[in-house]
Amino acid sequence: MSRTDRPRILTGDQPTGRLHIGHWVGSLENRVRLQDQYDCYFLIANMHAFTTRAEHPEAIRRDTLDLAKDWLAAGIDPERSTLVLQTAIPAIAELTWFLAMLLPVNRVLRNPTLRAELDAKQLGDAYSFGFPLYTVGQCADILAFRAQLVPVGADQAAHVEMCREVARRFDHVYCGVPPGTADAEHERAGGVFPVPEALIGRVGRLVGIDGVRKMSKSMDNAIYLSDTAAQIRAKVARLYTGRQAMTDPGDIANPLFQYVRAFLGEPERIRALEDRYARGDQLGDGAVKAEVAAALDALVAPMRERRAAYDGPRGDAMILEILRAHAARANEVANETLARARAAMQLAL
Ligand code: TRP
Question: What is the distance in A from the centroid of ligand 1 to the CA of 287?
């Protein structure tokens, strides 16, 4: 099956800094894995970055290029998949307007992910008009590519749910798709949009190396995909378990064992370690940490290697070339969607 006959994936990240191992288990590994089965579009949400950092265009540009490098390093293959720079796709902005008309403002403001972000950033009511609008924009990102599948971390599920609602509503209002039509039948029933499904990653929330909060760049508790072996070892060594001796019965719900389960891979090995740790059978934290650090290094070593190609003086130029070529490909799909949406809305001239 040629690439363009496959069902489509659209997903993305905001450019906010380097990617870490929480991103990997939260969604990135799914994206890398699904590149052969789907026609994949991976979106750099640089417009969204402006909703909170409008005064820092240079930083956003830097983070945009870094995100693309991190993706390619992680195994996103520019020969098989399409990188989408959000601001290079005008159809997304126009579609955002159309969709905004189909969503009650209170529905948008109730979005739990949006609420959590407002709380976390302690913005009070001092946020930009564009900030809540990004959630509608995210629906447009997905629908512009008529994606069936959206691989995301658990924190993004609420956005995909809102996208599903607005897709159903558009198809009903403008395409005559009867209410109650099964989600999978929308396109066959004449809808412009498929009702997309979220694919949530295998680890919803990876704890950071502080052992308490979710791993994130802003909390300074992250192990980056670009870290060296020594950095990884030092960070894993910092993980606090509170355990004193290797004969103490250990708590396998602790952060260290969350990493064991997330990164060791072999179920047999994981069970053996859990068993010995829980019984306090001569298994010290140091030995477990060494195994976790080795597994993490094995995961990111090939990424470091691929990344080296883009770290040279021509790195930025190489990325920009890819983004330009891919934008042309992405615009073909998004413009086709927009033409269909406009026709359904009786806007064709
Ligand atoms: N909001 C997402 C994040 O912060 C990024 C994003 C933008 C996205 N548009 C998207 C994710 C469309 C999935 C689909 O991680």
Answer: 38
Q: Give the number of C-alpha atoms closer than 13 A to the C-alpha of residue 146, restricted to the C-beta side.
A: 23
The pLDDT tens digits for 63-105 are 999 999 999 999 999 999 999 999 999 999 999 999 999 999 9
Angle at 333 between CA 19 and CA 175, to 5 degrees: 115
Nearest CA to ligand 1 atom 2: 13
Task: Please tell me the distance between residue 310's alpha carbon and the centre of ligand 1 in angstroms.
Answer: 24
Distance 85 CA to ligand 1 centre (A): 12
Query: Is residue 126 scored above 90 in pLDDT?
Result: no
Separation of alpha carbons 314 and 114, rounded Å: 38
How many Å apart are CA 136 and CA 152, to the nearest integer? 17
Answer yes or no: is the C-beta of 141 below 6 A from any ligand 1 atom: yes
Closest CA to 162 of 98, 107, 201: 107
- Of all protein residues, the one whose alpha carbon is nearest to atom 5 of ligand 1 is 13
Nearest to 71 by CA among 33, 31, 39, 36: 31
Residue 218 reports pLDDT greater than 90? no
